[in-house]
Amino acid sequence: MQIASRLAIIALIMTGCPAQLKAAKVMAVTFDGVVHPITVEIFGNVMEQARAQKADLVLIRLNTPGGLLDASRKLVEQIDASPIPVVTFVTPSGGRAASAGFFLLQAGDVAAMAFGTNTGAASPVLMSGEMDAVMRRKVESDSAAALRGQANKRGRNAEVAEKAIFEAKSFSDKEALDLHLIDLTVRDEAELLRKLDQREIVRFDGTHQTLQLAAAEVVEYKASVRERLMTSLSDPNLAFLILIGGALCIYIEFSSPGLIAPGVIGAILVLLGLSAMSVLPVNWMAAGLIVVGLSCFVLEAKFASHGVLGAGGIVALVLGSLFLIDGPPEMRIHAGTAFGVALPFGLITCFLVVLVTRARANKVVTGASTMIGQDGVAVTELTPAGTIVIGGEYWNAVCTGEVPRGTAVRVLELNGLLLRVAPVAKTATEE
């Protein structure tokens, strides 16, 4: 009897071990900037890694001012299609999930906010200029319909969620919880995982699933070098600075050929800047203005416009940079960046033009033409050939007549290394 009991206990332990030994795995990624196409690419790689590692949950940490509506919708599509439950979490305290971030928060199977965070203000903003009433209504209605679909599927308050679009309303963490826009408010991530353990959720396809997150292991997604670089460069202000810096280096190379280093550095910076711009919605009219501005700076060095081309280049560069990015305000180039780039670029160009103009106006001090008209002294008799000294240099010279040693002579012509001279005085003090 005792042996049978022991065998039963061993069997029970063995059957229970696999479940106890297998710790839940949570794949976590942080979106703490503007939502753009690189964000979509990163999340796609997160999902691939989560599936490869058989993660039980994907955790998206949100702290974003918003971003591109198209990019946020693609992210929402990926979240809806995820075979692994996705939790969206606004963190840390003081953070926000505004504008496009509100759509991402609502897309999660579980939406949570840390204390002291806020969300909402999801009114769509036209890429450039102002929307008329009809266009605004169309865009708002389309966005509201997408948000209603998310809220209804997740069992949240769709009517209140629409106010973030139609009224640009924002909500604190407590307000969002009380109005059933989110599911949880917590102090930190550890408390979130504790509250999620054994919680039953309804997936976007209507299936029910119970989360098993006891002693969960959080695995941080490690972005690749390319993803980190493109995420940094996707800041339009930084991308614009890199692009203009590269253009300035190339301009310096053309102004002073042979330096090589500015040309190489400029080419690298321009390519990096263009690579960054390729993932951003660019207004090509504004890009044309930038090209016009840079062309004006180049022409200023070629033509004497008395600063008109330089001033026009500054104006074109400022206007082009302000309208370069077709996106919401948080994605546009700041006015401070535009003026901070255009004015120094214009001043540097004008400075280089002044240097070139002065160099052209200065008297030539080197070359064969500088010898004509200079005075020297015959150090030997010129009969008619001999040697003279000019500025400490000895030259072979020839004269039409005989010239005594010590006579002052003047250069009339240079023929190779032979000077043709004429006396300027009948006698001179002998050395």
Your description of this structure?
The chain has three domains: 2-224, 2-enoyl-CoA Hydratase, Chain A, domain 1, CATH 3.90.226.10; 235-361, no CATH class; 368-423, Nucleic acid-binding proteins (OB fold (Dihydrolipoamide Acetyltransferase, E2P), Beta Barrel). The chain contains 14 helices and 16 strands. It has helices spanning 2-21, 37-52, 69-80, 100-107, 133-154, 158-166, 173-178, 189-196, 225-233, 236-255, 261-277, 284-300, 308-322, 335-361, and strands spanning 25-31, 57-62, 86-90, 96-98, 110-114, 118-120, 170-172, 184-186, 200-202, 208-210, 217-220, 375-378, 385-390, 393-399, 408-415, 418-423. The strands form four sheets. A six-stranded parallel beta sheet has the order 8-5-3-2-1-11, sandwiched between helices. It has a five-stranded mixed beta barrel with strand order 12-13-14-16-15. Strands 4-6-7 form a three-stranded mixed beta sheet. Helix 2 (37-52) runs parallel beside helix 3 (69-80), helix 3 packs parallel to helix 4 (100-107) and helix 12 (284-300) packs antiparallel against helix 13. The protein is elongated, with a radius of gyration of 38 Å. The N and C termini lie far apart (136 Å).
